């Protein structure tokens, strides 16, 4: 049995108290919401904070409000979002992404803010302390070599958040609060392509909320590859969102997940789609753009060359679904989850 290390636990009731306590020792303090990522990491000694600040008791973090779109508190559980009909009807891409995270029990505990801040993953990192010690650890924790690519000067652990690609595609923003003030940035700007320093959130900041702009004219979808039809992290995914004027796309965003240390936007695809109807030829060209950008590493499930090839198929399926094609059979076959069929 893996046991937790010793730590001090503090439970604030307001964001201001949490931010003040976090500012006392940000380098040695971590935030706990649902705990579905942090607690296992602490048991494996991947993260060993001396102080844990539990923010689940902060009421304002658990609210969903309609404010020129939708504002979602970072402490809203994944289950609550799956059950929210406003999310399902207006932002189906986000709903599909959240509904495919882990299992019902974990979604009951896990939060949207926690999934956005999900630690990057790697075959050489997500192991017990003893396993990692046997290989002299890795660059991400306690070592100095990235075993994925031993000549690399930075960590190549992969981003495995499901919600981030969907939120980037939808143009969402996040609010970060610290004892010194508040700032907002796009979800895209929350990430850096580095397996160790994958968040631009400072150690003294708390992600308190995210904001989705109005969905007027936008359609969205999320497609995910994993070995099992439930529970597994993505090993390749795509979020697609497009604003239509009739059959013609006005603007679009394509975002790839689990193929780098951050979600990857495909700017060439967005430029190619603007002002065009979604023909089969255009869809094939956009899928080629995404395929060229995706560079998965050999540090997750499945063979990396095949994972790269699936990106083309995932983008094709996503765009066909945005076009209005009946993708229920293909989606059920891939996800093995009938609730993910969008009516």
Question: Which helices and strands appear, and what pairs or packs with what?
Answer:
Blueprint: E1 8-10, H1 15-24, E2 29-32, H2 38-43, E3 51-54, E4 64-65, E5 69-73, H3 78-83, H4 85-90, H5 92-99, H6 104-109, H7 112-116, H8 129-134, H9 163-169, E6 173-178, E7 181-186, E8 206-213, E9 218-225, E10 236-245, E11 248-257, E12 264-265, H10 267-273, H11 280-293, H12 304-323, H13 328-335
Parallel strand pairs: 1-3, 2-3
Antiparallel strand pairs: 4-5, 5-8, 6-7, 6-8, 9-10, 10-11, 11-12
Describe this structure in words.
Strands 4-5-8-6-7 form a five-stranded antiparallel β-sheet. The mean pLDDT is 95. The protein has helices at residues 15-24, 38-43, 78-83, 85-90, 92-99, 104-109, 112-116, 129-134, 163-169, 267-273, 280-293, 304-323, 328-335; strands at residues 8-10, 29-32, 51-54, 64-65, 69-73, 173-178, 181-186, 206-213, 218-225, 236-245, 248-257, 264-265. α10 packs antiparallel against α11 (280-293) and α11 packs antiparallel against α12 (304-323). It is an alpha+beta fold. 32% of the residues lie in helices and 20% in strands.
């Amino acid at each position: 049995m893996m046991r937790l290390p010793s730590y001090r636990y503090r439970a604030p009731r307001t964001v201001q108290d949490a931010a003040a306590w976090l500012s006392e020792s940000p380098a040695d303090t971590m935030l706990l919401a649902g705990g579905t990522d942090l607690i296992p990491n602490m048991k494996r000694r991947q993260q060993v904070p001396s102080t844990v600040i539990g923010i689940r008791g902060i009421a304002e973090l658990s609210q969903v409000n309609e404010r020129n779109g939708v504002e979602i508190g970072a402490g809203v559980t994944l289950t609550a979002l799956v059950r929210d009909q406003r999310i399902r009807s207006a932002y189906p891409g986000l709903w599909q992404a959240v509904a495919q995270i882990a299992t019902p029990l974990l979604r009951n505990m896990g939060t949207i803010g926690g999934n956005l801040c999900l630690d990057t993953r790697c075959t050489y990192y997500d192991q017990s302390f003893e396993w990692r010690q046997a290989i002299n650890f890795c660059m991400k924790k306690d070592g100095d070599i990235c075993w994925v690519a031993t000549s690399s000067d930075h960590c190549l652990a992969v981003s495995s958040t499901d919600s981030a690609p969907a939120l980037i595609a939808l143009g969402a923003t996040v609010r970060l609060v610290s004892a010194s003030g508040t700032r907002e940035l796009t979800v895209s700007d929350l990430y850096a392509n580095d397996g160790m320093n994958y968040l631009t959130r400072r150690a003294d900041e708390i992600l308190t909320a995210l904001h989705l702009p109005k969905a007027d004219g936008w359609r969205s979808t999320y497609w995910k590859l994993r070995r099992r039809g439930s529970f597994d992290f993505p090993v390749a995914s795509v979020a697609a969102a497009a604003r239509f004027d009739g059959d013609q796309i006005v603007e679009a965003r394509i975002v790839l997940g689990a193929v780098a240390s951050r979600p990857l936007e495909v700017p060439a695809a967005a430029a190619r789609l603007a002002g065009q109807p979604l023909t089969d030829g255009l869809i094939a060209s956009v899928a080629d753009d995404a395929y060229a950008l995706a560079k998965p590493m050999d540090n997750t499930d499945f063979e990396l060359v095949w994972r790269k090839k699936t990106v083309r198929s995932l983008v094709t399926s996503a765009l066909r679904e945005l076009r209005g094609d009946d993708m229920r059979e293909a989606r059920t076959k891939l996800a093995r989850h009938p609730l993910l069929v969008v009516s």
